[in-house]
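Colleagues,

Please find the record for the two-part complex below.
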Amino acid sequence: MARRILIIGAGVTGLFTAKQLLEKGFSDILVVDKNYPGSGGSFRCATGIRASFTSREHVKIMLRAIELWPKVSAELGIKYSRDGYLWLLTRESDVEYFSEVVKFQNSLGVPTRVLTPEEAGALVPGLNVSLVKAAVYDPLAGKASCFDSVVNTLRHLLSRGVRVEWGVEARRIRRSGSGFAVETSRGELEAEIVLVAAGWGSRRLLETIGVELPIRNLPKHALVTEAFKPVFKPLVIDWATSSYIVQLFNGNFYIGADIPEEYDVKPAHKLEFLRKAAGVWTRLLPWLGEVNVLRYWTGYYDMTPDHHPVLGPVEGFEGLYVAAGFSGHGFMMAPAVAEALAEYISGGKPGLPEFERLRPERFARGELIKEIAVFG
Amino acid sequence: MIDPRKVIVCRCEDVTLYDVEKAIDEGLTDIELLKRKLRIGMGPCQGAGCLLVVASILARKKGVRVTDIKIPVSRPPIAPVQLKFFAGSRRSG
């Protein structure tokens, strides 16, 4: 196929999609990134992968992603493991709510189950079980290395003739002939097919061609500690405080914790985050107090009004596609998203009908995704 | 000639000159990608011992000046701090 494809954004979504397109027979593929591959959410994220969500769309798409992760990880040498997710519930009202959540998830084939505090303690050595009323465990969930996912896919693409160029910022898109012209910091690029997979930046870029996307950037905070031998496998969430901890493959503990934030502002480092992350997790895991914090960084969730991505063909612009607004879940669903985008771009429809519900025009039509309740 | 497999570039993560040169030859021509491939700068020293060395290797391989290589952002804290010291703070703001 001679048509040239330009992918804007060399995060895990853009790179995985380039790989899928290569397998569909496209050969003229250029991926550009304003900074460096993985420099947005991909390299900053917590790397968790789960299907235990509360909308049918998220559950079905993540189940497909979880089918694909072992294949893509084996092929590209990406560390991936089904180490589970564990929600710690410290309030009675949360236990009632989660029993409904588990019923919903089980009905769609997600094997979540309620655990006693003692069962949770067996999965997480040193857990202060006296604070825990119950827990929910998802054994199908897991994690993958975000570094391998970007770096190994990049090498795979480069060795097969895909061009990936970074330090190239896309600024404007306009129609040109049967395709598009994209004005960049390094001159103009022409392509018949353009995929915008640039997080929040997708919004500003698509505005230049008259497409409005309701994506807002929400600052997020994370820290990582020094590395230890494996202590516990699951990603552990303290539901009441919106905080989580996961031991990464290298042995470092990664902690995220929500603090009050405003949309669309440049994030700053805040002591408030360190206090919350340390306060929550040294209470639940007292031994963690002795562990050294190495790095604290910020990033964004690119949020949409229904917390589901904007994904698929842009109505009225033949050849223009978008994959953005993942609202904190882009890394985990990337293999399924790449598969669906390659199906769209090669003229078909995604195998999973749930993808059609994520198309950009749903906002104008008021067809937002519904969840059984706000969650995660 | 020194064996590049025996020249340690990053002591925290035990990365050799051979590892760095091989990764550059495989297309990882950006210090940010070398960091994610090799973990240089991600150990307890936060890159204090290795990043300038890696920058000079990369500059030599690419034929550019070392000052043209942008060093990854340093993240707080400057030195490792135990989590309990943050948990103990009650000061607001």
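Chain B has one domain: 4-87.

Comments are welcome before we finalize the supplementary table.
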